[in-house]
Amino acid sequence: MLNDFAGADFIYIACGYTDLRCGIDGLASIVQQRFQLDPFTNTLFLFCGRRCDRIKALYWEGNGFVLLYKRLENGRFQWPRSAAEAKALTPQQYRWLMEGLNVEQPKAHRPAVGLSIV
Fold it and tell me: In terms of C-beta density within 10 A (0-12 exposed, 13-18 middle, 19 or more buried), how is residue 56 classed?
């Protein structure tokens, strides 16, 4: 379910470590207070603990929150640990994360921005 999640307009990951003992209220509070984002939007928020083999996802479904939990049996998530910030992901970066890859793929083709053909 989490690998092919397509219902959200935006996807954010909480870089750094999150205490996964937090439930819905605790994670929604982190979204509001630490990241100044609104958890009541059509956004998927992802959190990872220290072991990098499990994540929690928080999603507002219009009339209540959905809390998803995924534990990998083999492998780890390549989670950004550099800062305690919320990082927006593209759909491609989300797929990379769910496949066990780093969200920053240095050899990936980047979209061209503002190029004009003369």
Answer: buried
H-helix segments, the chain = 24-33, 91-98
- According to DSSP, residue 91 is labeled H
CB 63 within 8 A of CB 38: no
* Residue 22, both tokens: 């937090």
Say if residues 96 and 105 touch (Cβ distance below 8 Å).
yes
Cα–Cα distances (Å) from 105 to 46, 70, 109, in that order, read 19, 23, 9
The answer to whether the Cα torsion of 10, 14, 20, 25 is positive or negative is: negative
Residue where the block lists tokens 């640990």: 81
Beta bridge partners of 70: 55
Single-letter residue type at 6: A
Regions in the chain scoring below 70 on pLDDT:
1, 83, 105-112, 114-118
Record the tokens describing residue 66, joined without a space: 């959905």
